[in-house]
Structures are given as structure tokens and as C-alpha cells.
Amino acid sequence: MNRTIPRLQAGAALIVALLLAVLAGATPPAAAAQTLTWTAGDDITAYRSAPTTAVAGATTIVWENSAATGNTTGMPHTLTFDTSTDGYNHDVNLNILASPFDTNNGRHTATVTLTPGKYRYFCTIPGHSTMVGELTVTSGNPDPDTTAPTVTAQVSGNRDSQGAYVGSATVTVTASDAGSGVRGVEYQINDTSWQPYAAPVPITTIGDYSVQFRATDNAGNTSQPGSVAFRVVAGQPQDTTAPVVTGQTTGTRDSAGNYVGTATTTVTATDTGGSGVARIEYQLDGGAWLVYSAPVVVGSVGAHMLHYRATDNAGNTAAEQMAAFTVVAPPVEDTTPPQVTATVTGERDTGGDYLGSATVTVTASDTGGSGVKAIEYRLDDGAWTAYTQAVGISTSGSHTVRYRASDNAGNTAAEKSVAFTVVERGSDACPDSDTRDTVIIGGNDTRIRNVDTGNGCTINDLIAERADYPTRAAFVRHVEAVTNTLVTAGKLTQRQAGTIVRAAAASDRGEQA
């Protein structure tokens, strides 16, 4: 019988059906979008739930921090994808703040495109820095995946001359899928019941065994069950218990929980299986695994993830653990003391002494960054006193005011001092008064009236141009002090004072012979 014609007829019928579907406007159903869900509650140390794996491609992110997910306090959290730490994908810029009281009642969605590799996510709210995790993305396949995964199993252990396993046997199942990726692996012992496979299965009871195994991919394809058969016989007790490994991160922390300058992680491991710990390993920020021999000190500024694990002498390896932390730069230390100066003001006689009283003003500034904490002064042989305002001295005689300042970093400026003399103000302090009509300095007539300043002394008397001055600058500063006092007393205008100071600067008074 010729079977070609029925096959052609069937093919033609299929083509006609497809054409009719196109003409009718039918379209193939769209593939469902991948959805990944994160949830949080009152805990500030970990997300309540989070995915660990996904397939590359368009993805709907669901982020819920609501009463429905266990948030009873209104605690806000963020879901933030890391875009700077080495070793992770940086192509998803996601930063969503959610709380039960926001406009979405704590449930938010976003559409992103994931690429193969690892993503790091965390909560940016201060104090929640331990809410962190990783998402591993496998390659997507735009074509429908109809091929089941490939799955195999291997039995390992010490064997006797008959091929039986002495004391125990370990079944290790591996699966791979070139399409959508492996979603899960299952196994069962002696046709009992299927259960998820997460790690090599140790069998220590004496007897005959048949272990079946199978795998399912993300497209829902399940492989045909495979099996391995073996016998376990009595032997010496074996260590099949992995070590317990823990890590503790220490260091100086700021108010946000970040480590200032450095963070030190100490890893410890113990083994109760009897064989003892063989080694501890760690991996920093996705780098190579290294043998741990001393606490790990991290001083580079930024967010870090330290993975660690331990293996015993029987070959059992503990589940990988992780410590997440952030290091920030320490503040620059202030080692510079403040700068402190003092000025003495008041009305002066021809000898430079202060008539009736003198006022000492102390100022301080700090360039080290911590700021001025305190200023102190000491009058003559008195005690050191906190300086809060200008100090007036009206007691006649010679005086010395010492002064200093300290900053908030504990630096204290070197002690300085200023000396001066206060004399009593008489009814005629200038018996040999210069009574010329105008103020004249070194032959320069300022054309400003040489008035009596109120105690028998004229402006020319107070300027005392014929007194000894070490430099011209010292003479000009003296004239500035005199004119400032007279402006305050209403004897001169500011403009007149400026004219007199300029005349002093143009004179030859104070120049060394």
C-alpha cells in the first residue's frame, strides 16, 4: 500500500487550517511574562521572600511590603538593584520605596529586562543594610523549549572487593538544560516518594538500594526517570555531617550602620561529625575563593559581600554563608590648633597709654575642620577665665592679658599675650596741647579742624606724631586706632578719619633713621 498519499493529504489539510486561521485574524497565544516577587514585613534584617533564580528576558517585578505580607508597624523598605559593585550586572536601575500606607498600599510592579549573570539587590534605608541578596539569571530561549533536561547520577564512597559500598554511599545527581534552564531535580529511594534534590544524598543504612531521579526545566518539561542500583554493607562509622561555619563582622560603625575605615570579618567553623575541619574558604565581592587563615580586613570604600564556607576531613562542605556590609571613608583628623589674636582699643594719650580704660577683644578661627570650642584669657596674675565678650580694664597701671583657644578635636593654640598701660583721665591730660587749627601730620595739612577731644587733648595730641614708632606701619595702625575711637565718640566722621589715616600713610613718621 502506498502511504505517501495519506501523508500528503494530512499535510495539505494542516496548511489549509493554518491559512483559515490567518484569514480569520487568529494569532498564536503570547508567551506569559516572567514574574518575580519580593516581599517584606517588620523585619529589618532580611526580605520575607525573594527569588534566587530567573531566566533572561522581559520580567515583571512585584515588590510588596504591606499588611498582607506581615508588615504590622508601617515600616518602609526599598527594593534596590546594585548598579556599581564589581562582579554583578548593572543594567537594571530599580529603586522602589514601599510601605503599607503609600498610594499602592505597599504593592508595586515594574517591568525590566534581565540579562544572564548575577544581580545584587538590597534595602537602602539606614539600619536595614543587612537586607541584601543575589539573583542568578540564566540565558533565555525565545523559541519554545520542548526538550526535557538531561539528568545523571553518580554513586560514590568506599567499596569492597564485591563492589558494595562500605558504611555509606552518596548519590550525586546533576542536571542540565540547554533551553529554559533547570527548574528542579527530584529523587526517590526504592520507589518510596519523590522529593526535591538539593544536595548529594548520603545513604548509611545497610541494604540494597535503587535510587530514581528526574529533572524539570522552566518550560515544564520533565525527563524520564533514571536510576542507579547499589548495595551498602556494614563498615566503620563515617563522618557525613558538614561543619558548622559562622562569621562575625566588627569595626567602628556610624549612625547608618556603615563601617568607618575598615570592616573585619572573623570566620569560625566546628565539625561534629568527628573528622575535624580541613579548611575554611572565603570569597570577597565575587572574586576567587581563597583559603581563610586570618580575619578578613576590608578597607576599600563601598558595599561588599563576603561569602564563606568550610570543609571537613571527610570531604563534607558546609552550605555557603554570606556577610554583607558597607565601608565608608573615615573623617580627616584635625591636628591643627586654632589661630587666635587680640586687639586693644581705647582712647590714648600722647605716650600711648590708655586714658581711663582699655578694651581687649580676642578672636579665634579654626582651619582644621573641627571648629573652635573655647577661648580663654588671663588678666595679669588672675586665673584662666572663659572668654565670652570683650574685656574692659579700667584699673590704672600696667596690665598683661594672656589668651589661648582650643578646638573640638582637643588641639590648643600656644598662649599669646598683649601688654598695655591704663592711666587716670585728668581734667587736662595734655597741658602742652597742640592747638593748631587743623590736623597736620608730617607737614601734610588735612584741613580737618583740630578740635579738643573732651579732656584737654586735641586730635593732634592723640595722634602724637612725634612719639617713637618702630615702623611706618605701626604709626599708621596707631592713627587708625585713634580715629576709630573718635568716630565712635562722634568727634570725627568716617570720611574725616580716612583722610587723616591716608595723611599718616603718606608721611615719613615711623621710618627708621
Task: Provide a concise account of the structure shown.
With 513 residues, the chain is mainly beta.
- Please tell me the CATH architecture of the largest domain by its name: Sandwich
Distance between the termini: 140 Å
The number of distinct structural domains comes to: 5
The proportion of residues in beta strands is: 35-45%
Q: CATH first level of the largest domain: which class? A: Mainly Beta
Alpha plus pi helix count: 4
What proportion of the residues is helical, as a percent range? Answer: 10-25%
CATH superfamily of the largest domain: Cupredoxins -  blue copper proteins
Largest sheet: 5 strands, mixed
- The helix/strand class is mainly beta
Question: Would you kindly provide a written description of the structure presented here, covering whatever features stand out?
Answer:
With 513 residues, the protein is mostly beta strands. The protein folds into five domains: 105 residues, Cupredoxins -  blue copper proteins (Immunoglobulin-like, Sandwich); 84 residues, Immunoglobulin-like (Sandwich), CATH 2.60.40.10; 85 residues, Immunoglobulin-like; 85 residues, Immunoglobulin-like (Sandwich), CATH 2.60.40.10; 69 residues, no CATH class. Helix content is 11%, strand content 40%. A five-stranded mixed beta sheet has the order 2-8-7-4-5, with no helix packed on it. A hairpin with a 5-residue loop joins strand 20 and strand 21. Helix 3 packs antiparallel against helix 4. The radius of gyration is 44 Å and the shape is elongated. The N terminus is likely disordered.
